[in-house]
Fold these 4 entries.
Entry 1:
Amino acid sequence: MVKEPRPGRVKTRLGRDIGYTASAWWFRHQTRALLRRIQDPRWCVVLAVSPDREGLQSRIWPPALPRIPQGAGNLGDRMTRMMRAAPPGPVCVIGADVPGISKAAIWRAFLALGGKDAVFGPALDGGYWLVGVRNSAAVPSGLFAGVRWSTQHALTDSVRSLGGSSVAYVDELQDVDTIADLARIGGAAPRAKGASPGIFSDQ
């Protein structure tokens, strides 16, 4: 799931730390690197884009990758819609702001769906970078109902929404929402051209 990387539209919490232009730049380059890294013949990568029209027409993302609009609603509504749009069989949805995502981690998630109804890749902040279900044609009703998004309860709430479905967990990874998160992964904060060290321009 990707957003068009425009200043003020993506990574706004990070933008408050380093400037909205710098945070959009970081997201754009992070996402492009991620898309190169996760290409694999074992699955099909599809971009779920937002905003719908702008994302479908964007020249930023690789033109060879199929795209579908995320549509309206909260994050749970949109992820459910993306899962149900996939061909019958296992499907995983990932975020684009986690530098540690690898093909090996995604493959472990698909393998876990061989014996479980759902799988999550936890994030260190209580959310998750991956969610998957065994069969896109039978996404559990009520999935993501009552989830407190953008809180430390997101993963716990999402698992609870599955009721009695069996759940597996794979790699716990660090997503990037703040400059402190960048520091944890050893990443340097992007800097606008011509700016002084530690000063980031929103213009």
Note: Residues 20-37 form the longest helix (18 residues).
Entry 2:
Amino acid sequence: MGAPLPRRVALGILAFGGLAAPAYAQTSSRRPGARAPDTRPTVVLDPGHGGRDPGAIGVRGTHEKRIVLATALDLKRRLEATGTCRVGLTRSRDVFIPLSERVAIARRQNAALFVSLHADSAPGARGASVYTLSETASDSLSAALARRENAADAAGGLRLPPVPPEVQRILISMVRQETRQGATRLANLTVGALRPRVPLLPNTHRHAAFAVLKAPDVPSVLVEMGFLSSPEDEAALLRAEHRATLATALAAAVGDYVARPGVGIG
């Protein structure tokens, strides 16, 4: 077999078949005098649950959907204030969005990053944590959380380009490998930013098969900001200053990532 296709070529073929290339890989020509395109990377924030799906409900009756939306809106403001990226939301109000549509929103916007925010429920667990995609969960808690989140609905299938199946497998494998490297790097940056600011779950970077992380061409992480089943975490997440601390840490991690998109996972 000859040398592998450059990733840029692979992304171009995938985009032709329906898998859009990330913002970093796109180029465009413009007419003289036309307004310069906005080439900043797009970050899509995903406040979990919403509408008829409240998510976890805390011991004091706190709904996860409200906590994560408030944090996402704060994080959006902070990221936009830096001017380094464009920011999209899967939802900006209390509505239900299927998991597959959340992934589709990120891909339609050619997102460079996808950050899903949650505050789940798990007996005995306390502290923030970060998850990246793996078909094999890193531990029983991660597996249980993924089952809970995925039960909201089923993730949709991918549209593949009109090329032979063996070529599809090669292209998807190339893009997935770099996507997962990006997700791991973002997870490491996020843990590093959270560590000095908020309590963390032990073994903070974990892995599970969350449906919302399955976009093959968008580095994605799921951030558990804490657990509403923990009275201490619930009380903290109800405080605006604590949510602001979380948003500050996440903005720092995302900012570091988009400022140096080509840096290895380290």
Note: The chain is about 40% helix and 15% strand.
Entry 3:
Amino acid sequence: MLIKRIICKVKDGQRDSFSEYQQQWSRLSSVKGFMGQLGGWKNKQPFVACVYAFWETRKAYEIFMEEVHDVIFSTFGQGSTYSSIDVDLYEEVGSVLKSVIEMRAVMRQSQYFRVSLGVLKGNKKAHFILQQEQIWNPGMAATAGMVGGTYAFSLKDKNHFLVLTGWKDEVYHHRYYVDRRFPDLYRSANSSEDVIRISADEFKVENAWRVLKDL
């Protein structure tokens, strides 16, 4: 699975227009290889939009970019509503919650998302994956309100990773994960051994932006 991360800094007074234009991407639902797309406004940065799109394969995404993307984008003026845009591509390594096989279920059911973004030290990739499988995944799976997720590495820089998790809502995420579960997991994983730096995107899902694949 390929994950596309899009971060837009929206201009003052343009939030409503950006949101309306974002809904136009609903036509993605019929594109071959597309799995889903969702997003929302970054917590504590109300003019930063986070959008994540999911594709079955890298090849399907490349065909979309060559044949479809510009046709959709050129039909409306979303580009005029933001001052900057950053795009990154990540390739999935594994699932966070084994009982959720389909990422589509996470996209349908989650109302809140946490995306941890980090940079690994030198040759720490294998150890990071081991810690993810043995410590983080079981810990998150046992947390109330956890729906599922994925972890992936950047196509541009192999030491850059993301861990994307979906939650029933913000209350579950903060009360049961951030406050109660996360500190113990962080200590057990001793993440400072593997990671140079880490940050997080958090956002409540804008339901009008949610696009699911036509069945």
Note: The domain at 2-210 is CATH 3.30.70.100 (Alpha-Beta Plaits).
Entry 4:
Amino acid sequence: MTDTELPFSTEDPYATEEPVYAAGPEGEIDEAAAEQGWEADVYDPPSQLVTQVCSDLLNRPDEEGESPGQWLAEGSRMEGDEKHILLLGIPKLCPEYTSAVKAAVSGKYERWFGDGTYVVTSKKLDGEQTIPPGTYRAEGSMKDCYWERTREDGEIIDNSFVTSARKITVTISSSDGQFTTERCATWKPVK
């Protein structure tokens, strides 16, 4: 026996070549991710990513100004392997957000709008917040809500300061330059 040899075996007699996954939907997610070679950056196992995103979706207040699909798509959550993991895992762990994850992947998600100044256009503009023309409604308890529609040169077309309201509807025209909102509830498209 040499100095580096031990008088007993160091191999685990119960070790297997195949990984063992947890039972239930988390294990199904992890097994599918391993089979596909998908990795979730800082989450190991990948089901932790899905658990975290489901928790974030469930606890997000509407006042944050983004629809669930918008939050997923515009928050860099739907890139690379993580997109595949979420498409697989959200229907298993938080099925109520299945349509939101599908909308985020397709790019056809409803956009909501919180406080800010938005350029009125249907196109995405680098470095600019945009809002497409249309009719929007803010609902909820609003105090000292201010909104304004302006021309491209900043001249006010229409505006209102509302000390207290439960529902406000505004139609933004394609000829408008900007839409500004402060301290109002989240603006959602009227269907």
Note: Strands lie at 116-120, 130-131, 134-150, 156-172, 178-182, 187-189.
